Amino acid sequence: MGPTQLSSAQSDGRFVPSHRRNTSDYSSDSSSTGNSPETQQNVQNLEKAGILNKTKVCENGKKVRKNWAQTWTVLHGGVLTFHKDPKSAATGASNKTNQIVPEVTVDLRGASIGRASKDKSSKKNVLELKGKNGVEFLIQYDTESIIADWHKVLVDTIRQLKVDEKFGGASRPSVTHSTSSAGDTDQKRVRTKLMKFLMKRPTLQSVKEKGYIRDNVFGCHLATLCAQERTTVPSFVEKCIKAVEKRGLEIDGLYRVSGNLAVIQKLRFKADHEELDLEDGQWEDVHVITGALKLFFRELPEPLFPYSHFNNFISAIRIPDYNTKVSFMCELVNSLPPSNHDTMELLFGHLRRVIKYGEDNRMTVQNVAIVFGPTLLRPETESANITMHMVFQNQIVEFILNEYERIFHSS
């Protein structure tokens, strides 16, 4: 859906439903039943899959430049596989390109995994994976519990690989009894049945396509979320904007007054794990909905104004000639990826309508820019210019709000 189509779709209050989704985490660990000899852990039973952020930092012992990217990550048989992010789906490409394709594999034999130090990355919840062949990766996800699960299963896998290698790939030796032969036969029979069961399981891709597994809405890359929903604006954003405008744009302190944090977190959980109905009475406080919408944009791994465009927007806002500034801003906005452009158009159109009720809600264009500037626009790495950046962030949002029609709807 292009910008013009999106605008008309919103004008009559209709929102295109979307098919949802995958989960950010999928795992199978047969060892969870205990550590007795009968349930001895085996590396083949350690499986896990989910969306993570990763970057290579070292190859053949030489440091390489960081290039963070979201990846579908699969652990199976002692091998960690990073898959390419099917970004082409966001641009309306053929479904054939929307396949998860393996990008790189890491053999965990002889590897090490641990929490990365602050000097390795300024991001939170970062793991450092070192392969025996001199390759090193940083793995990250904003949710601490998910990273903790990955850390545990990777540690267990590496430890089990060492045990298997020590005993020639066999299980740990146990005390020999007169019934050991019968016991071995039973174990082989159980192992065979388990393997047949595992082989019959549907693939992750097929389960995802049928909608049985869902991705978190919060903390998901914008392009990935839109690709999964087959749209260019996340349905959560559309639902929140529709609900806010239905409740009334004249409400005092809209987007400035904080909603109840516990209720906002409950709404977030609902959005991540099931279909969200904002008509439900538990979301009657409009400040809860505006708080959740701000939280959604704040938790995007990459902000609505992409990192790649940050310096260009800063340069554009500093242009002295006003008409030249408008021209540059138009070019920059039109150069954004479809999901960023269309989501920005919908959000800023909504904020313009909020500002029209400024006498009632006391949300002037300056107040809206102060609230949303740091949320929608931030540098990839903080620097000494943080105070100056904050001024420019607010000015950019204010400028686009003031020139919304010329930037988004001019021919």
UniProtKB/TrEMBL annotation:
Any one GO CC term of the record: cytoplasm
Keyword Secreted appears in the UniProt entry: no
Domain PH: 45-159
Biased amino acid composition, Low complexity: 24-36
Gene Ontology BP term (one): signal transduction
Segments of this protein annotated with the region Disordered: 1-41, 168-187
PROSITE patterns: PH_DOMAIN (PS50003), RHOGAP (PS50238)
Single Gene Ontology MF annotation: GTPase activator activity
Keyword terms, alphabetized: GTPase activation
Domain Rho-GAP: from-to ranges: 220-408
Name of the protein in its database record: Rho GTPase activating protein 27
Organism, scientific name: Sander lucioperca (Pike-perch)
